[in-house]
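re the bet — no i am not wrong, look at it urself. input seq straight from the record:
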Amino acid sequence: QVQLVESGGGLVQAGGSLRLSCAASGRISSDYAMGWFRQAPGKEREFVATINRSGTTVYADSVKGRFTSSRDNAKNMVYLQMNSLKPEDTAIYYCALTFRYYSGSNSLESYEYWGQGTQVTVSS
């Protein structure tokens, strides 16, 4: 069983930056990947980024060049550094973990554990 706790969301002006953190606890001894997803009001949850055990990342086209995901396996932490934020980035951001798709995935159903979400609001 795995528990994910997110933090770092908040209100920021367009062009600003935020760093989201996701702390994982529980039985995390095998190879796994983590992902970031977001859900804006009235929209479906969408893929943002994924990072595998080795730190290899894949990003959605909408955030490439602006967002960077990283992880600290010793601390069971994953991060999402968000730069050059735009109003359209406003959403609830979720971290997620998968043991099965340990190479990473952009699919919602690939992830077995989810954080509670943290609100990111970007003002114009």
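see?? The CA atoms of residues 33 and 57 lie 10 Å apart. told u. also The radius of gyration is 13 Å. so pay up
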